[in-house]
Amino acid sequence: MDKVLIKYASEISLKQAATKKLFQQRVQQHLEAVLEKKGVAVRKFFSWQGGVIYEVGDLKKSLESLKYIFGIHSYYPLVHESNSGLESLKKAILHIKPFIEGKSFVVRCKKWGHYPFKTQELERRLGAVLAPYGQVKMKDPDVQVQVQLLNDRAYFFTEKYMGAQGLPISKKDRVLVLMSGGFDSTVAAWRMLKRGVSVDFFYCNLRDRASEKQVLQISKVLVELWGEGSEARFFSVDANSLVQELKQSIDPTYRQVVLKRMMYRLAQKVAFKYRLPALVTGESLGQVSSQTLQNLRQIDSSVELPVFRPLIGLDKWEIMQEAKKIGTSILSEKVLELCQISKGQPVIHAQKKRLDEEESRFDFSVLEATWETLTVKDVSSLGAKDLKQPYLFVENLPEGAVIIDCQPRDMYKKWHVPGAENYEIQELLHDFKKFDKMKTYVLYCPFGTQTPFVAEVMQQHGFSAYAFQGGLSKLKKQVSLS
């Protein structure tokens, strides 16, 4: 088995003894759980205050996995090890020769324990042994040879990998993230994970099941990459009736702020029910009209719980760069944000008195009805089938949907749903990207076997697309009865 040395995030070393020990144990437990889940044999070899050495069965897979574990400052694959006596070290350093031949290098040593030589003296002596084979360069060398002395053993490394930093995740410390699946809320959730806090997700669905599927997929990817073992839950409500009530009762200039207040109220009900102490959002100061200081203050006043905003001082470019770093950017860029329900310029300095007047016209029974649609999913336990089957098919033709007939032309001429547009499968796969993403699409074909694939492809590109389940015979009966 190969050995890997892991150094804890420097922040952990600043904690009091009991807290430091707890955080170090969490890092180790998380590391072992992640590697074991990936099928990597792992065994703790040695630990000390600053880090831990593990033996691993698959070095390449281990090095790739360690970068996603919070609480790690850096990690190093072992090249060689020896006794820590000076003469042993001078002989052992020659094993580094193949790594520095024809290159510039520097030797850096770290000690844990008591030794009859100083660190700088040891670095000079070991550097002198290697000097005939490479060029000593104190700043920006090609290779930094690292020697870690731990009691009577010494470990040699030539590669350094940076870890995720932060604090190890606690299952007990948990917050509720208002999740849209876009760049902002996803990065906000990641930043909470980095601070050692587990996250649950709350999604206010303003559109349809395909939109929920996208957000659920992004939540799952985030947790699987960065929050393994955090036992995240995904809460969602159908908020379409809520939006309709807003459009009927609230002045257009105040709809955005009132919508946010309603979302916060729903999220707080979830948090109270599941004993979550705080809400988290991806809001950034001034990024959109509802995120001015005055508007955020009025939005916050709708709930009792504290609202954390990890991105409050970041601009959009910074947020998108962070999304790329954490691996969710490619998914978030396909999510269609649907919070714009106002015509004209939304208010940027919402006043409490005016908000009270606007909300006095709102039918709060609609908010309660929205709450009754709450569903809960265990993110970690969801498989590919769970993320496909419930979100891909419809058994009825939704009002206002664009109906796409995928029959051959001659069959389409004989019978089709009134108003249906005809595209053969390959034609549809070529043309669908030109469609309007604000519309909902239902696809049907003779036996219902080809359209599920196309609907899934369309969903992956951010469209609300579904396959009619049951084929032509079932569809004809439904149309004849309508």
Task: State the distance separating the first and last CA atoms.
Answer: 68 Å
- Helix proportion: 40-55%
CATH architecture of the largest domain: 3-Layer(aba) Sandwich
Q: Might you state the CATH topology name of the largest domain?
A: Rossmann fold
**Major sheet summary line:** 6 strands, mixed
Count of discrete alpha- or pi-helical segments spanning 4 or more residues: 20
% residues in beta strands: 15-25%
> Measured on Cα atoms, how large is the radius of gyration?
29 Å
CATH superfamily of the largest domain: HUPs
> What structural class do helix, strand and pairing data support?
alpha/beta
Strand runs, count: 21
Stretches where pLDDT is under 50 for at least 5 consecutive residues are none
What is the residue-mean pLDDT, rounded to a whole number? 93
Structure description:
With about 475 residues, the protein is α/β, with parallel strands linked by helices. Helices cover about 40% and strands about 25% of the residues. The chain has 20 helices and 21 strands. The protein has a six-stranded mixed beta sheet with strand order 15-14-11-12-13-16, with helices on both faces. A five-stranded antiparallel beta sheet has the order 2-3-1-4-10. A five-stranded mixed beta sheet has the order 5-9-8-6-7. The chain starts with a strand and ends with a helix. The mean pLDDT is about 95.
